Amino acid sequence: MNSKQLFENIRKKKSFLCVGLDSDIDKIPGFLLDHDDPVFEFNRRIVDATAQFTVAYKPNAAFYECRGISGWQSLERTAGYIKQHYPDIFIIADAKRGDIGNTSKMYARAFFEGTNFDAVTVAPYMGEDSVTPFLSYDNRWVVLLALTSNKGADDFQYHNDNGTRLFEQVLHRSKQWGSIDNMMYVVGATRAEMLEDIRKIIPDHFLLIPGIGAQGGSLEEVVRYGMNAQCGLLVNSSRGIIFADTTSGFDRVAAQKAEELAGEMSDYLQNFNLI
Amino acid sequence: MNSKQLFENIRKKKSFLCVGLDSDIDKIPGFLLDHDDPVFEFNRRIVDATAQFTVAYKPNAAFYECRGISGWQSLERTAGYIKQHYPDIFIIADAKRGDIGNTSKMYARAFFEGTNFDAVTVAPYMGEDSVTPFLSYDNRWVVLLALTSNKGADDFQYHNDNGTRLFEQVLHRSKQWGSIDNMMYVVGATRAEMLEDIRKIIPDHFLLIPGIGAQGGSLEEVVRYGMNAQCGLLVNSSRGIIFADTTSGFDRVAAQKAEELAGEMSDYLQNFNLI
User: Between A and B, how many residue pairs show a Cβ–Cβ distance under 8 A?
Assistant: First the structure.
């Protein structure tokens, strides 16, 4: 999928919602634990209920890895299920990988050959050769951390070299490694005030925006400062959708929550004359 | 294991060698492919041959993840085998993880509860709350990336805020998050000239030093600038040991290479009056 196709999907669905599948086995409804693969069953029902409002899913690898081999099985089955039943939906492995060149090549293989992901999140600390191996696959994307939503972002991401903060340096350098068709950036919704500066450096790239909902970010501000002529936004919500309810009707409630967010997004897309 | 015990093991073995188990299935001797789990069989033989010269093993997760579930099985079996047969040897999961707090907690669980690792490498970009969840386990360590051995280290790690480069800022901040008994730092041997500055900030911490051998770093320089009164060094070699030979005698050749490096290390330890 390239950026144009992603935008077309956004227009079709009238939504730029990404649902985060942070499917902690300790938080899913108890009755699912009778299934062979409770986390996959949870994800399957969430996906079936929310797919019409959603252009992307983002399972976070940590919630799967912590269960060892059975967790990896749930993750692979989830990506496979989405790709099979909803081929237009963009699937991001939120794995925050990155290593020296010959090793990053192995991570790229893990996510782009062994499984069905369209994109993987990558941490920029180790620089160019840690990122470019992921960019050698057609139609696969790197989602590079720029300015994250957590408190710890303050520790290093604002490190200021003659007026250029680290997250800006990450944007300046890395935008030369790929294109708007294979790179996007993580910018936390809790840092929406920085989106104006960020758009000066990367006006045309897609941004993946976590931090709406439980973390306190505002969709309205994200749109005001971050939206561009191709929308340029994937806004993620995880806990606020998938754990909104823990009864047997959890998937219906998740669908309602997704529909609400998609409804707001549709309004913003109209205001910007994008649909 | 705490830093004193690690130093005791170094004195006992007269070595501060860490062997990197970057066990690429495409590079291991072909005759092993007949085994049910060729990579585990390769690792088992490497470990049995080199353990007497080695204080640590460091499997890099990427080389396992790229094989999906069967790769994770090889990784878990390898860690379990080392812990069972060589309980004094320190096992580092070179995974370069890191995410927002509640997610890093899941990664910590993956490496410290599900498996037998003593330490995991962590990328610092996301700051304090991405690192501290790993520090809540007794006798388990974070190995934080400071200054890496690859070319891409130049892209961001020297970003200079009023005379403090990013890798120095990582050291300044993060040394307050843990202690010399649960944190060490990655400094590439190819950056040995920086060890003098690094030792001013963290005189007492252990350093994990990759980049000897295939990547061109010098053991002599690492020791000159990096060794402290408790040795303070784990020097890693991967390809130079494990893939030194690909015949049926690969494990004997690996042992020779490990013994050579351990011999040099023993001389340095004597020169510093540490043994």
Answer: 179
Report yes or no: A147 and A124 within 8 Å, Cβ to Cβ: no
Cβ contacts (< 8 Å) between B76 and chain A: which residues?
68-69
The position carrying tokens 């092993």 is B32
pTM passes above 0.80: yes
Query: Is B250 domain-assigned?
Result: yes
Q: Which domain holds residue B103?
A: 3-270
Interface probe, candidates B22, B25, B65, chain A, greatest A C-beta count within 10 A: B65
List the CATH number of the domain containing B162. Answer: 3.20.20.70
CB contact under 8 A, A106 and B62: yes
Please report which helix (H) or strand (E) contains residue A19, including its range: strand A17-21
Chain B residues touching A125 at Cβ < 8 A: 123-125, 145, 148, 156-157
Catalytic (active site) residue A96? yes
- Chain B residue with CA closest to A65: the answer is B110
The interface residues of chain A toward chain B in range 250-269, judged by CB-CB distance below 8 A, are none
How many separate domains does chain B show? 1
Question: Quick check: is B36 in a domain?
Answer: yes
* Per-residue pLDDT of chain A in tens (275 residues, 90 and over written 9): 999 999 999 999 999 999 999 999 999 999 999 999 999 999 999 999 999 999 999 999 999 999 999 999 999 999 999 999 999 999 999 999 999 999 999 999 999 997 889 999 999 999 999 999 999 999 999 999 999 999 999 999 999 999 999 999 999 999 999 999 999 999 999 888 899 999 999 999 999 999 887 778 899 999 999 999 999 999 999 999 999 999 999 999 999 999 999 999 999 999 999 99
**B chain contacts of residue A62, beta-carbon cutoff 8 Å:** 97, 99, 103-104, 106-107, 110
Q: What is the DSSP string of B98-143?
A: --SHHHHHHHHHHHHTSS--SEEEE--TT-HHHHGGGGGSTT-EEE
One-letter identity of residue A50:
T
Nearest-angstrom CA–CA distance, B267 and B272 = 9
DSSP-derived 3-state class of residue B53 = helix
Q: Closest Cα partner for B68 from A37, A93, A22?
A: A93
* Residues whose CB is less than 8 angstroms from the CB of residue A78 and which lie 6 or more positions away in sequence, other chains included: A21, A39, A40, A43, A44, A47, A57, A59
Tell me the ipTM for this assembly: 0.96
Contact criterion met (CB below 8 Å) for B209 and B222:
yes
Catalytic residue among A96, A175, A200, A257: A96
B275, part of any domain = no
Q: Which of A107, A123, A160 sits opposite B125 (nearest CB)?
A: A123
For helices B219-226 and B250-271, the axis angle rounded to 10 degrees is 40
